[in-house]
Amino acid sequence: MDRGPGWLYGGVTATMTEPLTAADRCDRCGAQAYVRVVLPVGELLFCAHHSREHAPKFAAMATHVQDETDRLLEEHGAGALR
Ligand SMILES: [Zn+2]
């Protein structure tokens, strides 16, 4: 029975994804980070603004993207995303 390429994604689902905290800061501007982009060589943190600007560039090589921008809406309202 062919189970498909499940082995290929085993490492991805096993990635530890600790919740982002107020101590996690955007690598570009120092604002609170809400998106973590895990790369084979490390990871990058972005605020909501810079995740929209930069995350698409890293999506192709990222092993995991942790997007917590939904939390930004809950905590600060829709105005925080403007
Ligand atoms: Zn930023």
List keywords for this structure.
three-stranded antiparallel β-sheet, alpha+beta, 82 residues
Notes on the structure:
- InterPro entries: DUF7455.
- Pfam families: DUF7455.
- This is DUF7455 domain-containing protein.
- The protein is globular.
- The longest helix has 11 residues, at 48-58.
- Residues 5-14 have low confidence and may be disordered.
- The protein has one domain (20-81).
- Strand 1 (35-39) and strand 2 (42-46) form a beta hairpin.
- The protein is α+β, with helices and mostly antiparallel strands and 82 residues long.
- Strands 2-1-3 form a 3-stranded antiparallel β-sheet.
- The protein has 3 helices and 3 strands; from the N terminus they run αββαβα.
- The structure holds zinc ion.
- Zinc ion binds next to helix 2.
